[in-house]
Amino acid sequence: MRVIVFFDLPTISVEDRKEYTKFRKFLIKNGFLMMQESVYTKLTLNKTVADAVFDNVKKNKPLRGLVQMMAVTERQFSRMEFVCGELKNGVLCTDERLVII
Question: What integer is the mean pLDDT of 86-94?
Fold first, then answer.
């Protein structure tokens, strides 16, 4: 499964920018990869792990702004259609357990 987090956070005041940075660093520290600006994704083993990720994001949500999450299966994620642009080759996008670089 993939957990996808979408967020739109205010960055007007210094406090808002600190909250934005704190939330973004939290996502990266917890294994999320940026798909595009303000859209992050994380690969999980199953629904139980995805639910734990949901709870962890809820505990670390910013004070203001909009944060949305959804879980999709790997099959659904692989059917994503690129309307404009293309997949970046620099990002590892696999569900294999062993990756040799």
Answer: 59
Q: Which run of H or E residues covers position 2?
A: strand 2-8
SS (H, E, C) the chain: CEEEEEEECCCCCHHHHHHHHHHHHHHHHCCCEEEECCEEEEECCCHHHHHHHHHHHHHCCCCCCEEEEEEECHHHHHCCCCCCCCCCCCCCCCCCCCCCC
What average pLDDT score do residues 59-81 get? 91
The model's pTM = 0.79
Please give the structure tokens belonging to residue 57: 């994001």
Work out the angle at residue 96's Cα, subtended by the Cα atoms of residues 92 and 97, and round it to the nearest 5 degrees. 110
Q: Which two tokens stand for residue 18?
A: 């600190």
